[in-house]
Design a protein that fits this description.
About 65% of the residues lie in helices and about 5% in strands. The chain is mainly alpha-helical. The relative contact order is 0.21.
Amino acid sequence: MAEFGAILALLNGILWHEYVLYGIVGTGVLFTVWSGFSQYRALTHGPAVVRGVYDDPEDPGAINHFQALSAALSATVGLGNIGGVALAIALGGPGAVFWMWVTGFFGMSIKLTEVTLSMLYRNTDDPDNPHGGPMWVASKALARQNLPRLGHAIGVIFCVCLLVSTATGGNMFQAWNVGELTQEYFAVPSWITGIVLAVIVGSVIIGGIKRIGKVTATLVPFMVVLYLLACAYVLTVNVGEIPSMFVLIVKSAFAPTEAAGAFIGGTAASAFLFGLKRAVFSNEAGQGSSPIAHSAAKTDEPVREGIVAGLEPFIDTIVVCTLTALIILSTGIWNRAPDVELGLPLEPVATAAGWPFPELGAPGDDYFQGERVTLIVTAHTRADGFDRHKISGTVSSNLMGPTIVWDVFASPVRPEIVADGFYRTYVGATLTAKAFDSVKPGLGKWLVSIAAWLFAVSTMISWSYYGEQGVVFLAGQKAVLTYKLVYCSLIIVATLGLVKNATDLDNVLGVGTGVMVFANVPICWLFGYQAMRAYRDYVGRLKSGRMGPDHPPPQLDDLLSGRDVERR
């Protein structure tokens, strides 16, 4: 596993080099300016489209605009909002949230562009079962320029990248987080959670995009409202801390954040790096994934669905992720004092391999086999200028009962424990849940656990469809059943304990997200002018009054179920 982790770290470093991040932000700036700040149109015109006043049963497609948005949001509003924000803060500090905002704002224009392109080039040979996404954009657009082989090759590369991202960020990350959270709170082994998740997801995805659309249209509004209500309660309790938290976020985006408690310090560069990575993972702008869901929408106006898609980063990153960040920061869970006192001094011993600390009897009986804990020590100066480090420990059992076995710490400098205590390792969604618990004991255990399950299930459902469309492009419909079986199997694999800490998790997420961006962003650069031309034409007709609502908004139950677009 150590060698595998090293490979992931190497790939992560290549895929997420700082110039790659500059390229993503630059792409968003480009399309923001080119479109004349399309964010405004998404926030003003987008809600009317989602409400169904433009839905037409005779248009090609399988689901209405609301269902398409829900399916795409179910893939973005997920554990990236609960666990991903916690990871960003734990690794990059509060300033990471600022860069999530920046990425979310400019991501709105990227999302509009990539979805519009996919709508322009989607395959509607079967009007009731359309196929779309960057692979179809590359294939069909280059074919029109007499480069069919090149277009197909780019489409194949994108689909391979899509399947890697589907397996990691869209599937295994979700299952891993839910497994960790459920084990932490309910002592249910992660692998059991994996089996349950696999059964639930499998029962939905077998029905295709129409069943996915109906399920997500019900799940997404419910889970978002539930989570926002819980956030509102905690923020009301800590309302006095909110202004200072916004100041901290902005300040930390441009200056180092000093080490304190469980946080070992971070620079503005690390805040930028982890903020952008987590935001791209969370809202998927530039990945080319959500265009696959939007391509199933019933419409004869490609730009209309692109405008709807522009709402995704706003809802996902600027609203939901911000609330999660405020919960974590205002409760102080991110830089808390040690959770458990050591009770006796721990002195490391110098060896050829490094500095091992002696085993420690786990205090109390609420520790489970395999649980991870953390020591904070000072030692050699890191590359970012800070000298604090984390040493992980694992709870194991012997004749003396639960015992903490510490990892050997490699350093030329003797490590010194910062505080007379250690920390229970709260990673991802578990850290967010503990923030809720710190305000209302039990709130995180129940509400965040429920939300995490809902978010994870909805995300895995939508990502299964993304991967399915990649398989259809690569191998045709005949390979879909095999793909679905493999997809559900990976849910179980993710809960077998292969990923144990935040660094490994970040590397897995980074590789999955990075390969998608590398494949999709060049497609946007090559053909983005077509999306911008179509966008200006659409907005011109809208502003001149040549295009308006086709009918009053449908009944809410018809909108949620998709009956408003069923052919009579």
